[in-house]
Amino acid sequence: MLYLKLDLQYFAADEKTEKATPKKRQDTRKKGQVPKSQDVNTGFLLLLVFGALFLLGAPMKATMTGMYEHAFQEYIHWDLTENHVHTIFTEMTWEISKVVAPIMGVAIIAGVTSNLIQVGVMFTGEPLKMDLKKLDPIKGAKKIFSARAIVELVKSLLKITMVGSITFAIIWVNKDQMMMMSQKSIEGALSFFGTITIIMGLASALALLVLSVLDYTYQRYDHEKNIRMSKKDIKDEYKNIEGDPQIKAKIKEKQRQMSASRMMSEVPEADVVITNPTHFAIAIKYDESKSEAPIVVAKGVDFIAQKIKEIAKANDVITVENRPLARALYKNSELDHPIEEQYFQAVAEILAYVYQLEKKM
């Protein structure tokens, strides 16, 4: 029963039920693991591209028709020489660039913007590193039949259904006009089909954006689930950040010892030691060239207080008993700092008494 209880406690501690800590999130982000929906990129890209086509359609059409007119009116009469081919290629490339460049620019802006909206600014090379574990066929099979794969399949079917339904509906509504395009001019037919294409693109983009909201919500949920931590993970992370508590305790103890050793070395230079007399001891030094007020060079209670008094006695430093002043100075004064103004008079009287006593001695 004892072993069973210990095993249950171990599994409970190792179960990933806790939210990820900020450090875990930061480390995961450095590896390129962030919640991201490709549908947001696709929907945003389609929306901006078809929007650009809607706004720039007329200039693009004028450029393309002008290019064809120029080709069949002038280029067709040129002799086939090296210079003429170079000229035709250069001019055609320039005209095509004027048509394609704005759309490519909008596509790049859409891609960058959609990624910034989702993950912000992030540069990492972790996903590009070679990882032989990705070639494991067993893990690959598990991914194929995992819950995530099923969600992706359902999502793909839903996208195909939505886009197909929207496209079919728009074509069905405009089927009568399409049948009459044979009676229209080429320019009118191009204008009609261009408008229909842009409407289908914009409608599909909006549908994908609506779907992307649901997909992004799921991606965030799945990401949060994957980066969950166990209580043991949180404790281990805390130890790595803050250090082992036992080591920290040893370091603090060593620092206290060093501080006490340095403090004791200042006692022989003190002018007076004010005591409780048994529990508190405060060593005071007044050096007019360094400070306008007396400075506390050492203080302590119980064992440390006894050590201060022993060192003071061994170095002929006068000890004065003043219970309330000793308690107040210990509580309200810092090492190597001047005493507070409210204790000036009391300490000045003690120093005056010590200086008179030293003169007599």
TrEMBL record:
SUPFAM superfamilies in UniProt: EscU C-terminal domain-like
The organism's place on the tree of life at top rank: Bacteria
Keywords: Bacterial flagellum biogenesis, Bacterial flagellum protein export, Cell membrane, Cell projection, Cilium, Flagellum, Membrane, Protein transport, Transmembrane, Transmembrane helix, Transport
InterPro entries linked to this entry: FlhB, T3SS_substrate_exporter, T3SS_substrate_exporter_C
Transmembrane annotation, as ranges: 40-58, 99-124, 145-172, 192-218
Subcellular location: Cell membrane
Pfam families: Bac_export_2
Lipid bilayer topology: Multi-pass membrane protein
A single GO cellular-component term on record: plasma membrane
GO biological process, one term: protein secretion
Main location per the UniProt record: membrane
Signal peptide: none
NCBIfam families reported for this sequence: flhB (TIGR00328)
The protein's role, per its UniProt record: Required for formation of the rod structure in the basal body of the flagellar apparatus. Together with FliI and FliH, may constitute the export apparatus of flagellin.
Record-stated family: Belongs to the type III secretion exporter family.
Protein name as catalogued: Flagellar biosynthetic protein FlhB
Protein's organism: Halobacillus yeomjeoni
Gene that this sequence comes from: flhB
